[in-house]
Write the structure tokens for this entry.
Amino acid sequence: MDLLSPIPDNLTELLVKIIRFTELRRDVLYRNMHNTRTPGFIPQDMPVLEFVGVLNGAIAEHLQSRRLLFCDTANIRFGPNSTMEIRPQPDPDARALLERNRDEYLQLQVNKLLENSLNRKIAKELLTLKCGAPLGVGRLPIAEIATHDRPLDDPSSPGPITD
């Protein structure tokens, strides 16, 4: 999903990358929940700490030289036109938990999904504010995001929640 083709500034590009990362992670976590009874299934997760390190490095570079530079890592690759590829990694702790207690494993995945959803909603709201959309009817202030679970794209129309 290309949120903004011509990236106008560093903050926007950073927020778009966070939103994309959370979309990819959501898909991985959903697969983890749906495949609990698949023989030989190995749960995965996105390399969250690696991604945070990339973001920290990009911000440090921006503070030093006024440019946002995303550096490739073992599991994260950046390409032309602000593209990003991230390789999910096996999650041995989740696998051990799945083998020991399926209910606790599912609760772990739900907790990860909730955290991921909150991160995505905050990034989307910041991007909305950054792009100049005023708060008002149909827009949530950031403080309320944690208490309302509805999409920020068009809250006035009913529809499925995508997070």
In short: Residues 10-147 form one domain. Residues 96 and 105 are 9 Å apart (CA to CA).
